[in-house]
Design goal:
This protein is mainly alpha-helical and 85 residues long. It contains three helices and no strands.
């Protein structure tokens, strides 16, 4: 399972939604209210041990955008860890 699918499954678990309900093209505004999205982002950051600023989320409108943002950050962290070894 790749990072994107792991992140999608975590999103579904946090939001208590079936995996097939969060395809890449689903608008974030339809996933939940703003508090749900904040909770989702905070929990994902904690689970994945990454952090973002509010600006990092600018222009992120879909589930796919959010998954890509997190997956790219996880991949960057993994590459940095590997280069240190």
């Amino acid at each position: 399972m790749n990072d994107k699918e792991i992140i999608r499954q975590a999103m579904c678990r946090i939001l208590d939604r079936p995996v097939n309900s969060l395809s890449d093209d689903v608008a974030l505004e339809t996933v939940g209210d703003s508090l749900d999205l904040i909770e989702l982002i905070l929990e994902l950051q904690e689970e994945l041990d990454v952090s973002f600023t509010q600006d990092d989320f600018s222009g992120k409108d879909t589930v796919g955008d959010l998954i890509t943002l997190f997956a790219d950050c996880v991949a960057d962290r993994q590459r940095a860890t590997e280069s240190e070894a």
